Structure formats: C-alpha cells, structure tokens
Request: fold
Amino acid sequence: MFNLHTLRLILILGVLFFLVGFANHRRKMKPVQSVEVKLMDASKIFITEFQVKDLLQATLSSHGDSIVNESNLAHFEKVLNANDMVKSSEIFYSLDGILSAEIIQRQPIARIKENGFYYLDQDGEPMPLSSNYSSRVPLVSGVKKKDLKEVYPLLMKIEADDFLKKHIIAIRKISEKNYVLSVRDKDYMVNFGQISYLEKKLNNYKVFYKKAAQYKKLDNYKRIDLQFGNQVVCTIK
Reply:
C-alpha cells in the first residue's frame, strides 16, 4: 500500500513534469523578441552582423515570427550556411525570446585573377569578393579553376607561415606546372618551378633570405631559382 510519503513524492513529480511540459510548450510558441549575432572572428568582416540579422529576420517573417520546434532552428542555420561568406553557424533560442546566432566566416587564402577576381578559401573552394572587407592575401594569376587544386598546397603553406604570409604577394603560372613568385619590397623574381617539395623549397628560400639580408645583398639579385632541389641559384643584376 502507498504511504503518505510515497503519495507526496508522486504528486511532486507529477507537478514537476507538468511544469516542465508547460515551459516547453510556452517556449515553442513564444514569439522572438530580439535577434543577436556574434561573429566568432571579428578581425575580418566579410559579412556584417546587420546582414546576418537581416537574413534571420527575413526568414522569421516567413515563419510567422515565432519558433515552433527544433527543425526551425535547423532551417535558420541552413539559410545562413548558404551565404557565400559563412562557413558555419549555430542558432540558439532562449526562454526570454532571444534568437542568437554564432557565425564562423569563410577565410580566404588567395585572390584569384581569372575573368575577374574571386577568392580561394581555406577549404580550397572559390569564394566571391566581399563588399565589406578586402583580404590581404597573395594574388594568383595565369590559372584556371582546374589549376586551383594544384596551387592550393602552396597557398596553405604560405598561409601557415608568418614570414611567407607577409612576404609573398603574388603567384603566377607561366607554363605547364611552372610557377613564379613575387615578393614584397623586392624587385627580384622567385622561380618556384613545380608545386613539389614544398617544405624543402620554402625552407631553403627562408634560409637564403635571412643570410642575404644579413649581408645586405638582396638588392643585388634579379632572379632566385628554387627549382633545383637542394640548391638556391641566384642571378645577379
């Protein structure tokens, strides 16, 4: 038989389940009071918080300005992720009616010149230019979309190296699998050759540059060749 303590516990649990269910129901039916947006990396603004808010509010309008269930949140994320400047997004909805979005933007590693201009992002995918921000990345020319996969590993090496990222300003394909590099504040050309032995070629160049800068000879050269394996071959002006 149930004693008074057991009956009291059952009643308390029943009230608790009722309150949780009621709160969930109110949450599902509660209109959105405001929209908040957070850019996870705000140092480069390819899409603004206002633009994200506009996307969300336009989507909200088509849903009657209220959150009904979790599938709505997934739909909002799908809308944001379809934007050319967004890599990924997370949407949250609070009990006080705030719809919050956290945005990770796509990050360019190169500006491609081919029938106009566009970026190549960190995932190796084409990305349009942004009207909000111009990224300081190497200009790649002489390539077509089919060449992007070939040059992508070199671009990623440059992106990951603080010196090379600031130093190399352009990459040009001059013939089949043959590339040359332009560097900042120097008028010599770097003949890189094929996109191969990246680590060795780039390390050889950095060692050469450091030594030549130490002896103040960098302005004496018009061509630096990295295509000969372990050697760095320099041509004097």
